[in-house]
Design a protein that fits this description.
With 263 residues, the chain is α/β, with parallel strands linked by helices. The protein folds into two domains: 104 residues, NIF3 (NGG1p interacting factor 3)-like (Udp-n-acetylmuramoylalanyl-d-glutamate--2,6- Diaminopimelate Ligase, Chain: A, domain 1), CATH 3.40.1390; 115 residues, 3-Layer(aba) Sandwich (Udp-n-acetylmuramoylalanyl-d-glutamate--2,6- Diaminopimelate Ligase, Chain: A, domain 1). Helices cover 34% and strands 21% of the residues. This is GTP cyclohydrolase 1 type 2 homolog. Homohexamer. InterPro entries: DUF34/NIF3 (IPR002678), DUF34/NIF3_sf (IPR036069).
Amino acid sequence: MRVKDIEALLYQRFPAHQAEGWDHIGLSVGDPGAKVTGIACALDPLPQTIKDAKDQGCNVLVTHHPAYLDAPRLITPEAATSSLAAQSIWCAIEHQVSLIAMHTNLDRSSAALTLPSQLTGFPFMGRLQAPDGYGCILDATGFTLAQVAERFGHAYGAIPTIYGQADRPIAKVGFSSGSLGDIGLDAVAAGCDAVVSGEASYHRILDLTARGCEVILLGHDVSELPYAQLLALTLADLSLQVPVVTLSESARWSLLLDSDAVG
């Protein structure tokens, strides 16, 4: 099994043509003809993640986020003298770990769009952007906004941020991982009472709540951490006869909950 074979098999599950034109998917660093010793899966191809993959005997790291969108003009061992993307590239080459990303093509896949339903237990109602776009709609009939947020928080391992009336009854919930952007307007058009995402701009949130669509935010990374396990399960289903592991990752941020610390 070669690195290029892993890329080709992943494209069968997450077709390249479904990625955005600005995206950088597939193999970004590595030898396509190198023999695969093991595959690690993660959300981000950070230098430490690359080292962790190597430590577990893996010479391929498959992630959701690409190492870069535009190739760095300067590549050095330290981000301080170039960039984080450049440092990751240097680290991958140094440790002979190939980097493969399945980004917006994975976002639009049926496997990704049904994952929130599997994690939360809210029934899947369909895509938010039909027929093949981003996001999904879930049935949360009988739950309040606070209860929906609590269930998502438990499922994704985060403390959600709520914008709206906590005791408002909810029926339809839109979900879009990562950055919400204009997809929030699709949730409004679909008649969603609330939309769950990773992050959204302040003014976008104000606009959505004014339109009657409450907002729940989990954190960009938290909303997409389950994709690492999805990638690992996808590869495991292919019976590749090489080890496939999911690297341990957590939110890149934390909450300061001690009110005395902020006066």
